[in-house]
What does this fold into?
Amino acid sequence: MAENPIQPIHQFQITNYFTFGTIGGDGTDGSGIEIAFTNSALFMLLVVGLISSFLVFSTRGRGLVPGRLQLVSEMVYEFVADMVRSSAGSEGMRFFPFVFSLFTFILIANLFGMFPYFFTVTSHIVITATLALMVFLTVVIYGFMRNGLGFLKLFVPTGIPWYVMWLVVPIEFISFLSRPVSHSLRLFGNMLAGHIVLKVFGGMVVGLASIGFLGVLGSVLPLAMAVALTGLEFLVAGLQAFVFAVLTCVYINDAIHPGH
Amino acid sequence: MTPTRNRSETGDLAARIARARAERSDDADFEPRDGGAARGAGRGFRLASEFVAAIVVGALLGIGLDAIFGTTPWIAIVMVLLGFAAGVLNVVRAAQRMGSEGSGAEAPPAGERDE
It folds into this structure.
């Protein structure tokens, strides 16, 4: 960011800190896939470390009457547990650790991105697509494990006459396949767009202020916009983590109860 | 400032408890359930992504199947149309889900929802 302060895309650049080696390739330099410890990996580690250490530290006292920090942990637990129970039933509670991990990881990663100079892990589609595919594969594998071929009833709504079935089943199938796409694109798009817009308004302030006195006066407007957008981005960070977790619960519910 | 406030507050324990309860119930829905414009934009984006995702998936499926069977535009055309229908279906379902979240406090119990 140092060489070009008003370039809005630059904040998403991946930089390698050190490399572990390469996979594949024919042994020559530059071939194969490089496995490296990047700034993205560093921030993922920080996120996971923060969540784990906070939960362990805050519940260390195991007080019957919770302290402040323990109360926060318990509220997060209750919040996610209510969410899972209300949309996937008590049987869905076996996926509670999964949903809880997803929710806290996305929430803290989004909020980490709000610090200046921090890297936003969830603004890369590789990360969100991996998370969405994890949910998708969990639903497919658990659905077939639990229901056998009965899981395919998901594509066949009840009460449909046979002569429209050939039209409805492909539509349901495409709709099912589109879930991980929209699931990952939504989180990725929101975080990417929010950070770009924020950076563009921030860059406008710098650009205008360097023109002269009138420019400084004019730069008040984009500055006000940037302040307002920062508030909005905090809201989006929480909301997108919530939406991702709720949709995970809804999809898991389909794996448990595939009939319509 | 704090000592005087404390003295006046300790007078009525019931009032303090009631106020604490009210504050906590405010905290409880920190989820921006009624966040006005931001919530509306979030909903709009959610519906749009549901719609577009289905069309994209349909198109990719069609192009892939065409490449396998060598029937170039035909399966893609059909699959894009089906993807459009699936997108509408996605949007309708997402809107139903939002409606049930917005009107009632909780989603309908599992097993009864028509998804």
